[in-house]
Amino acid sequence: MMKMILLVSLCCLGLAGAAELERIESCGVGCSQGLQCRTKPHAFFPPPCQNRPEGLDASSVFRNISLSTVMRCEGRQKCWLHLRIGIQLRLTEAVHGVSVCTVSPGMMEECRKIIFRRSSRERLSGLQVEVQSDCTDVSPGQEVMVTVKTAPSYCGVTWTGAHKAPECTSQDLQRHVPECITGRLSYDINPETKELMVSVSDMLEDYDYHLRLCHKDFICMGTGEGTRIKMNEPERIVKLSYSQPLPCLCIEGWSMVTDAPRVQVCPFRDRKSSSHFVVTPASFASPLMKTP
Q1: How far apart are CA 265 and CA 98, in angstroms?
Q2: Distance between CA atoms of 283 and 291, rounded to whole angstroms?
Q3: Do residues 105 and 143 touch, judged by C-beta distance below 8 A?
Q4: pTM for the complete prediction?
Q5: DSSP character for 50?
Q6: 3-class secondary-structure state, position 165
Q7: Tens digit of pLDDT per residue, the chain (292 long)?
Q8: Radius of gyration (C-alpha) of the chain in whole angstroms
Q9: What angle do CA 268, 274, 279 make, to 5 degrees?
Q10: φ, ψ (nearest 5 deg) of residue 38
Q11: Do the Cβ atoms of 60 and 107 come closer than 8 Å?
């Protein structure tokens, strides 16, 4: 029997694929030491902007604003992504707080107002302070537009920016975020019996797993050969029979959840005898790709 092993890691080229996101225990809003702040519901129909005081503009108030993605976990495979917004601003008597709004294509705008207590803003007036918020949920690969304004809102004193959350090609997301977990596949080829012995590891916890053979072109068309691995089965090895060792013949696997990401392994494509190779992100089937 000729043995060929495939480790489906969906790795990215370079260091970005191996980098881990910062973890948070819970989401929240925080202000720099000495600055007391609280969140306040944002008006559904906010009042129009006010004329800004002399010398007040976006560059004089907002010194630096950073956007990044962090991860919150409740278990090894139960993690969620959050957008972290870090704001550095110069505090003045006219600035009582900031409002932060986020919106994505096809989604409703979400706004949060962060108000500074009067006693602390009077004490720190003229100094640079920091505000951080990381309670905006984001999905892998989601693009978010961010708008930051002063409170009260002054005309022209606005900062806008955009951020894209990491894709499922990130190894960190593949291990911990359910939407990105595809399972890892290894297989043995028996050319004499025309059989593939496929083993699944690191599958999504608490869900069954489906394996099948398919012919891949633009989409992967099923050959009729497939099976379901129960989540509580100790042996996660199945036998799949094929008729011809075609380059387009692939093993496809996915967890039994709605819109689950799929992984595709093509044992006979560019195969070399006794070789070991790693599948590139091209073998990852996005949940947006409708595969029969």
Answers
A1: 50
A2: 13
A3: yes
A4: 0.78
A5: B
A6: coil
A7: 434 333 333 333 333 445 799 999 999 999 998 999 999 887 778 889 999 998 899 999 999 999 999 999 999 999 999 999 999 999 999 999 999 999 999 889 999 999 999 999 999 999 999 999 999 999 999 999 999 999 999 999 999 999 999 999 899 999 999 999 998 888 999 999 999 999 998 889 899 999 999 998 888 888 887 889 988 876 788 999 999 999 999 999 999 988 888 998 999 986 644 333 333 333 444 433 333 3
A8: 26
A9: 50
A10: -150, 155
A11: no
Residue 174, helix vs strand vs coil: helix
> CA-CA distance, 153 to 51, in Å (whole number)?
9
- How many residues in the chain? 292
Indicate the helix (H) or strand (E) that contains 118: helix 118-123
Question: What pLDDT, on the 0 to 100 scale, is given for residue 18?
Answer: 52
3-state SS, residue 175: helix
139 burial (CB, 10 Å; 0-12 / 13-18 / 19+) is middle
Of 148, 191, 170, which is closest to residue 61 (Cα–Cα)? 148
CA-nearest of 4, 11, 6, 3 to 284 is: 11
Query: Residue 256 and residue 90: Cα distance in Å, rounded?
Result: 51
Tell me the sheet residues that pair with 200: 185
Of 2, 5, 4, 7, the closest CA to residue 278 belongs to 7
Please check whether residue 193 is in contact with residue 201, taking contact to mean a CB–CB distance below 8 angstroms: no
Give the neighbor-by-neighbor strand order of the sheet with 195-201.
2-4, 184-190, 195-201, 237-241
Q: In terms of Cα–Cα distance, which of 270, 272, 288 is closest to 280?
A: 270
CB 81 within 8 A of CB 138: yes
Q: What tokens were used for 197?
A: 């012995």
CA angle 172/176/180 to nearest 5° reads 85
Bridge partners (DSSP) of residue 187 are 4, 198
What is the residue whose two structure tokens read 């709605």?
Answer: 258
Helix, strand, coil fractions of the chain, as percent rounded to 5: 10, 45, 45
